[in-house]
Amino acid sequence: MYVILLGPPGTGKGTQAKLIAERLGLAHVSTGDMFREAVAQGTELGRQAKAYMDRGELVPDEVTIGMLEERVRQPDAQRGVVFDGYPRTLQQAKALDAALQRQGKSADIALHINASDDELVRRLGGRWLCPSCGEIYHEQSRPPRQAGVCDNCGGKLSQREDDKAEVVRQRLQKQRPPAGMLDYYRTQGKLADVDGQQDIDTVTRELLEAISRTAAAAKS
Ligand code: AMP
To answer: Which of the ends of the chain has fewer CB neighbours closer than 10 A, N or C?
Structure first.
């Protein structure tokens, strides 16, 4: 099963992708996490990506697509993937299809999680994450048991550089899924919309229901 999560920053794609991947036994592929790792390791890829990330802009397709193509060839991606934060452009969507097709596979469903700008600004501003294990928290909707400390591993929580107010506005302006990309999946009958303003459990349930419907339709 190849599941794509689409939506502007702050809709909970990362949180949901992790839950769904675990539940369905799929690999979780987040291009944002891959870029952050590359930046932390000081690789050439990280150097290229950092300037764009700091400005809240998309990393160019040439760089992003190459990285993604290599990732989907890895052994753990063969049993299926939840894509989180990829694709973000029509060109990326087409490149993903081509990459999967080369392996005799195809994307099954694109889940579009949406929310209003006001809600997204509020969420991104209160987001904290654990640099050690990747767990995501929110001051209001998902606070850690002890402020600033990860429930899972005891790591010290930090805020992403690009979750600061000025960059958040840039990200929302430049990173809403383009209509052409949504249409690309809609015309293939693969797009499902989910209201991201509901609580986390409800969103997870609706995403899993949409995935089950697709899986059932594919079997019949
Ligand atoms: P995210 O964690 O998904 O919000 O991604 C963090 C940052 O990484 C984004 O603001 C972009 O600068 C970059 N990025 C992540 N995924 C992509 C992508 N598919 N295409 C271009 N840039 C990306």
So the answer is: C
Nearest residue CA, atom 5 of ligand 1?
32
Instruction: Please say whether the beta carbons of 56 and 171 come within 8 A.
Output: yes
Q: What is the pLDDT, as a whole number, of residue 125?
A: 84
Structure tokens at 203: 């969103």
Global pTM value: 0.88
Pocket test of ligand 1: the residue of 88, 164, 166, 175 to mutate, having most ligand atoms within 8 Å of its CB, is: 88
Which structural domain, as residue segments, surrounds residue 103? 2-116+176-219
Q: What is the model's pLDDT at position 33? A: 95
C-alpha distances in Å from residue 193, one per residue of 78, 185, 205: 26, 11, 13
For ligand 1, say whether the CB of 12 is within 6 Å of any of its atoms.
Answer: no
Q: Is residue 160 part of a domain?
A: no
Q: Average pLDDT per run of 10 along the chain, which is 220 residues long?
A: 95 94 97 95 96 93 97 96 98 98 96 92 88 91 94 94 83 90 96 94 97 86
Does the beta carbon of 162 lie inside 6 Å of ligand 1?
yes
In a domain, 69, yes or no: yes
Q: Which of 13, 59, 162, 166 to mutate to test the pocket of ligand 1 (most atoms within 8 A of CB)?
A: 59
Residue 14 belongs to domain with CATH number: 3.40.50.300
- 199 occurs within a structural domain: yes
Q: CB atoms < 10 A from the CB of 106, how many?
A: 12
The count of structural domains within the chain is: 1
Q: CA–CA distance from 73 to each of 16, 80, 84, 150 (Å)? A: 23, 11, 17, 32
